């Protein structure tokens, strides 16, 4: 793919940048960058104990005659030798220094002894980075990315662990959440996806179970050759700093790290050379690469502060320049949403999963691992075990992935109804399901639609909610008067999954099976598919 040139006049190419042509247009203004790959913008201020200590250091206590303030147990920047005991949700490991509050440590592994530098203090615990490993775990490896270190990029959590160890850590977290939140004692195995060290990758065969309805193909089962655990992420949100550098955010910080080359990004994204260009005036650059091997099956979207004024575009038809598609409301009233402009590529991407092609908006939701959509589709089919004539409800259906693989299995004597609140995703989904007249999508808030009496008769239900988990109205629907008998719950957050499972089990459901997939190697994220059966 050709290099992508940001539309900014007067920019200077950074040393070593490759590809691209001369600048054509100007941009102005910048605001705090939007969410970045692997790290949400968060408040990085230290906890109250540290702030109190800082205040005391500036002079005498204003409350004369009172007892002196107690020194906090930790201070930011302090280094302490600790033994790492176990793993915790979010890419942390746990240390319990004798006589001190618990400490959550990044860049460590269970069983290690490390020197941890405190990065944040709260009234109950401290956060820290392992800055020196004094006794290493046998699972420790050299991180492939030079930015994966304390103070570096926050996008990856486990680059310093072998891939099998990463999956074991994720399994332990899922087990913890199930036990602590839902009271379930389950042994969990996190399964690798194709291209990341499966038995099929080693043997050179297709590890996807085949059914009469789902014909897996070479792209889905064996992505293009890449180092296991790297090169998988087909959507990346780069943040842009005040100098126009597109990078990724540091952990729990707004700071943008100039990573140069993101090793977990798909090759189709890396080939565009986005990080080699200057994006002054933008707050973010979002890049997506479609799963189908087709010309220009990618999108580069520039995100700007809508209040900064509309930038003038280049001459029409300039190769590699913005196509002029933009969204946003720069006019007064409520704070305007950031303006988004398609700078290169397509507004819609072609994806491949379940033996079919799918159209998805460039900024719409789709699984970011090339093998995830197909693997999860198969897991949902196995969980629901649909038969001809069945009625299916697909909640949070997005562009219709699960509705589309279930529709041919229930046939024209059955029915599939998808519920999705995003208008663009609904438009994509309706086009993707056009071959199945008995499958339809409804644009509605899932919580509102769950109370519709017309949906009560669906025998099979699948849901793939955001990280916040199921809306309470969905729990009420499933545990109320609905006729649902089997439920496939696709979750990307073990904590909210465990919370919802506890509510569903209390409401008359039984957890039959739980599968976990390593759809996000090198990070702490994990995708789960829970199969629940209604007790009658």
Ordered list of secondary-structure elements with their pairings:
Blueprint: H1 48-57, E1 79-88, E2 92-95, E3 102-106, E4 113-121, E5 125-135, H2 163-182, E6 190-192, H3 199-203, H4 218-221, E7 235-240, E8 246-249, E9 256-257, H5 267-270, E10 284-289, E11 298-304, E12 326-327, E13 339-345, E14 348-353, E15 356-361, H6 372-384, E16 391-395, H7 401-410, E17 415-420, H8 423-432, E18 439-443, H9 446-449, E19 460-463, H10 472-479, E20 486-491, H11 494-506, E21 509-518, E22 527-534
Parallel strand pairs: 3-5, 6-21, 16-17, 16-19, 17-18, 19-20
Antiparallel strand pairs: 1-2, 1-4, 2-3, 4-5, 7-8, 7-10, 8-9, 10-11, 11-13, 12-13, 14-15, 20-22, 21-22
Can you tell me about this structure?
The chain contains 11 helices and 22 strands. The protein has 536 residues and is of the alpha+beta class. The protein folds into 3 domains: 48-142, Nucleic acid-binding proteins (OB fold (Dihydrolipoamide Acetyltransferase, E2P), Beta Barrel); 164-225 and 350-534, Vaccinia Virus protein VP39 (Rossmann fold), CATH 3.40.50; 235-346. The strands form 4 sheets. Strands 6-21-22-20-19-16-17-18 form an 8-stranded mixed beta sheet, with helices on both faces. A 7-stranded antiparallel beta sheet has the order 9-8-7-10-11-13-12, with no helix packed on it. It has a 5-stranded mixed beta barrel with strand order 1-2-3-5-4. Helix 6 crosses helix 7. The longest helix is centred in the N-terminal third of the chain and has 20 residues, at 163-182.
């Amino acid at each position: 793919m050709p290099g992508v040139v940001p539309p900014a006049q007067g920019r200077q190419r950074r040393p070593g940048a490759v590809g691209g042509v001369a600048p054509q247009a100007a941009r102005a203004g910048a605001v705090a960058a939007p969410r970045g790959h692997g790290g949400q913008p968060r408040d990085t201020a230290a906890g109250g104990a540290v702030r109190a200590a800082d205040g005391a250091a500036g002079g005498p206590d204003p409350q004369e005659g009172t007892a002196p303030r107690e020194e906090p147990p930790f201070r930011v920047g302090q280094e302490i030798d600790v033994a790492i005991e176990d793993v915790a949700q979010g890419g942390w490991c746990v240390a319990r220094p004798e006589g001190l509050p618990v400490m959550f440590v990044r860049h460590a592994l269970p069983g290690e002894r490390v020197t941890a530098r405190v990065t944040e203090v709260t009234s109950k615990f401290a956060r820290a980075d392992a800055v020196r490993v004094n006794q290493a775990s046998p699972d420790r490896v050299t991180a492939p990315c030079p930015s994966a270190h304390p103070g570096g990029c926050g996008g990856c959590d486990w680059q310093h662990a072998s891939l099998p160890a990463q999956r074991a850590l994720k399994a332990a977290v899922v087990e913890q959440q199930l036990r602590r939140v839902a009271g379930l004692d389950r042994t969990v195995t996190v399964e690798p996806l194709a291209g990341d060290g499966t038995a099929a990758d080693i043997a050179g065969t297709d590890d996807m179970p085949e059914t009469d309805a789902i014909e897996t193909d070479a792209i889905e089962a064996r992505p293009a050759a890449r180092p296991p655990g790297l090169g998988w992420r087909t959507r990346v949100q780069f943040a842009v700093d005040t100098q126009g550098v597109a990078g990724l955010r540091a952990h729990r910080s707004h700071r943008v790290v100039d990573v140069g080359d993101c090793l977990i990004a798909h090759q189709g994204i890396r080939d565009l050379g986005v990080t080699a260009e200057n994006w002054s005036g933008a707050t973010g650059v979002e890049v997506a690469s479609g799963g189908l091997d087709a010309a220009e099956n990618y999108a580069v979207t520039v995100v700007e502060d809508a209040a900064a004024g509309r930038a003038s575009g280049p001459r029409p038809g300039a190769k590699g320049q913005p196509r002029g598609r933009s969204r946003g409301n720069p006019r007064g009233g409520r704070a305007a949403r950031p303006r988004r402009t398609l700078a290169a590529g397509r507004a819609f991407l072609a994806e491949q999963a379940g033996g079919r092609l799918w159209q998805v908006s460039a900024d719409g939701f789709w699984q970011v691992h090339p093998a995830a959509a197909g693997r999860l589709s198969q897991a949902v089919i196995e969980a629901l075990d649909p038969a001809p004539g069945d009625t299916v409800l697909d909640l949070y259906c997005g562009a219709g992935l699960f509705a589309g693989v279930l529709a041919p299995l229930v046939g024209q004597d059955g029915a599939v109804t998808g519920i999705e609140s995003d208008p663009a995703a609904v438009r994509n989904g309706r086009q993707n399901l056009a071959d199945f007249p008995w499958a339809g999508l409804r644009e509605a808030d899932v919580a509102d639609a769950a109370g519709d009496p017309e949906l009560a008769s669906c025998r099979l239900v699948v849901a793939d909610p955001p990280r916040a988990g199921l809306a309470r109205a969905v729990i009420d629907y499933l545990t109320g008067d609905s006729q649902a008998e089997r439920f496939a719950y696709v979750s990307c957050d073990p904590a909210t999954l465990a919370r919802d499972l506890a509510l569903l089990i209390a409401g008359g459901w039984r957890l039959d099976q739980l599968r976990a997939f390593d759809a996000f190697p090198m990070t702490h994220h994990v995708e789960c598919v829970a199969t629940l059966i209604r007790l009658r």
